[in-house]
């Protein structure tokens, strides 16, 4: 999609280190981390809102969660704990409309968010 930050990162128009990539999604570090581990798991195709998802889109979401869990283990937060967050629309504070799953961990998040 034109003028979408995450589409531009995926397409290489904006440079950002891609930490992981598969048929469904890719992973980057959040530019403004709120915790020692803050990764964004992003579908390779431009999907925006969960309420518009088709059956095939849920397969992508499923895969994103699987990647997030594997990354939580790889990043060493699977035992200490972590948070998986998808923001949707204004009241969530969503900044980028291209759907993404935040993996946040590495310190105590109780009382935050
Ligand atoms: P949202 O608020 O939409 O759920 O999350 C968007 C996230 O993207 C924010 O946490 C923000 O810090 C991150 N972000 C915004 N611009 C960039 C960028 O250019 N590169 C990277 N890696 N992350 C970004
Ligand atoms: Zn996009």
Count every helix, treating DSSP H or I runs of 4 or more residues as helices.
2
CATH superfamily: HIT-like
Spatial gap, N to C terminus: 30 Å
* Overall geometry: globular
Structural class: alpha+beta
Give the spatial strand order of the biggest sheet. Answer: 1-2-3-5-4
Gyration radius (Cα, Å) is 14 Å
> In CATH, what is the class?
Alpha Beta
Characterise this structure.
The chain has 113 residues and is of the alpha+beta class. The protein has a single domain (5-105), classed as HIT-like (HIT family, subunit A). 24% of the residues lie in helices and 20% in strands. It has helices at residues 5-11, 55-74, and strands at 20-21, 25-29, 37-43, 82-85, 101-105. The protein has a five-stranded antiparallel β-sheet with strand order 1-2-3-5-4, covered by helices on one side. Residues 5, 16, 28-32, 87, 93-96 line the site of guanosine-5'-monophosphate.
